[in-house]
Each structure stands twice: as C-alpha cells, then as structure tokens.
Amino acid sequence: MLSLLARHSSILLLLAAVIGFSFPAISTAVFPYLPYILFFLMLFTLIGMKQNALISLLFQPKIWVYAFYHAALLSILSTFIASVLGASASLILAISAVAATGSLFATPAIARSVGLDVMTAMAMTIATTLLMPVVLCINLYLFQHDSFGLDLMTYFQRLVIFIFGPMLLSDLCHRYVPSHILQRTHSKIAQVTILLVPAFPLGLMADFRTFVDQSWQQGLLYFGYGIAICLLFFITGFLLFMRKNVQNGLLAGITSANRNVLLTYTVAGTALGPDYLILVGALQLPIYAMPLVVKWMSNLLNSKNPTQTPSVN
C-alpha cells in the first residue's frame, strides 16, 4: 500500500490541496501539527541519504551557485517585478520571504518520482536551506513594514530546532546505527517521506480559503500570483541550468519551484506580514502540480533525445 501511494504521490499532493481548500476546517485542524511533521520529514529525508556522497556534493561550487540563484537572485528578480507592477508593501514582503525560502525536503523524493538525480536534489535542498536564514534576514530588513519586527532570539532558536536539529540527529543515526540497517530501511523511509508531504498542502490552505470567501476576485488574483511565481522560478532555473544537460535544467526548475514555505513561517512567524499565509495557500496547487509538469516535460524531451543520459555536472 505504501509503495502504491508513493507511486501516485503527485496526484495525492494535488488532491490534498483541493481538500484543504474545499474543507477549511480540516486545513485549520492540521495546521498546528505541521511544524512537527516538518521536523520528522527533514529527519527521515536526511537519514535516507548516504552521508559521504552528500557531503562530497555539498563541497562542490555548483551546488552553492545554484543556492545563490535560488535565494538571492530570485529574491532580487521577483521583488523587482512585483515593485514594477505596483504590488503592495505587504505583498512584496511576502514574495521576498517565499523567494528566500529553501527547497522542500521532499524534493529528493519528488525528484525520484520523476526520474531525476536524487542525491543532487538533496544537496541543493540542504544548501538552499542553510542559505535561507541569511537571505531571509536581509529581505526582512529591506522590505519589512514598520509595524512588523523579527525576534532574533526566537528566530535563531527555531533555526537550531528545525534546521540543525534534524541534521544532528541524522548524523548520530549514521554514526551509531549499523549501515546495513539504514540501507535496508532506506526505501521504506523514502515512502514515508513522500507520504508526509500531503499534510502541507492540506494544512496551508485555510487562510487562502478565508481570503477567497471575503473576495473571490482577490483570491483569483492571488492564485494568479502563485502560478506566476512558480513559473518564474521554474523557467529561470530550467533555462539557467540546462546548458550541459536537460535533466539538470529540469532538476533546477523543480527544486526552485518547490519551496519549504512552512519552514520560513515556522522560524519567522508574523514578521512575514499578513499576506504571507494567503500567498502560501495560493502557491500550493501550482507547487504540487510541478511534478506532473516535469514528468511530462522529461518524457517529451527524452523522446526527442533518446540517447541523452542524466548528468550531475
């Protein structure tokens, strides 16, 4: 059953977003538990990775070039476009926070489901997560409204718990649990990981649904913003990183579009402004539609270039 659900995870993610929007009471009930699910999602993902290969990838400059693009360059590009189009200060703040956000920790599992390089996806995810606190602080300093503030002590405490905590526990598991046991449970951990992800689109839709109930026209507009942001992130990632291999472009695109928006909210909270959770809700359907888009693109491109093989260079 787990393997069957994991195989159809892309549909499950979209269904969770639809259910969360259709039944906001369920979304509201799930929301308080999301930080705990996030913690275990990050831990299970890290435990399932080969530490030596992962660390080796993290020392490669290309990973940090991608991370700089993912957080810093997209922050500049997206907030510039929003400013030119006359977006409100609160919306620009929310967009800057989304742009600073690292990739979903389920990205390796999603990459596996569409036939992309899992280990590189994990390295990109960790690098963007480690860079996120710095870029987010800069973005909050630049775009925060006077009525908001960031409690730095709480911010760093949450960073330690939700970013470095899973990394430390994973390292301890790899040090003290025999490798053959970890390898044997790797496939099951990967399946559990992808099954935790639907909780996020399910639990993050309530604020957006309330916003839509107040004004469906504004709700539709914010949904358009969500689609535009995902397309901007995906297309720029794809075009910038497809030079050597189309698979690299697809991996960069989906990693860029997948955003761990709950982690950003968990560590920064109300400092992100009133538009953040609304925008996050509007992003859920576009974000989780991306695996289906990438799978379609990958099949289409591979059919045109059948001799091309994936590369991580």
Verbal overview:
This protein has 313 residues and is mostly helical. It has 17 helices and no strands. It has helices at residues 2-7, 9-22, 24-30, 34-47, 51-58, 61-84, 89-100, 107-113, 118-143, 152-176, 179-196, 199-203, 206-214, 216-241, 246-257, 261-268, 276-304. Helix 6 (61-84) runs antiparallel to helix 7 and helix 14 crosses helix 17 (276-304).
Strand residues, percent: under 5%
Write down the secondary-structure element order.
HHHHHHHHHHHHHHHHH
Instruction: Report the radius of gyration as a whole number of Å.
Output: 19 Å
Mean pLDDT, nearest integer? 86
* Count of helical stretches: 17
Ends apart, CA distance between termini:
36 Å
Protein name: Bile acid:sodium symporter
Transmembrane segments: 12-31, 37-59, 66-85, 91-111, 123-143, 155-177, 189-208, 220-241, 262-289
InterPro entries: Na+/solute_symporter_sf
Organism: Photobacterium arenosum
Please provide a brief summary of the model:
The chain is mainly alpha-helical and about 325 residues long. The protein has 17 helices and no strands.
List the helices and strands and how they pair.
Layout: H1 2-7, H2 9-22, H3 24-30, H4 34-47, H5 51-58, H6 61-84, H7 89-100, H8 107-113, H9 118-143, H10 152-176, H11 179-196, H12 199-203, H13 206-214, H14 216-241, H15 246-257, H16 261-268, H17 276-304
Transmembrane segments: 12-31, 37-59, 66-85, 91-111, 123-143, 155-177, 189-208, 220-241, 262-289
Keywords: Membrane, Transmembrane, Transmembrane helix
Organism: Photobacterium arenosum
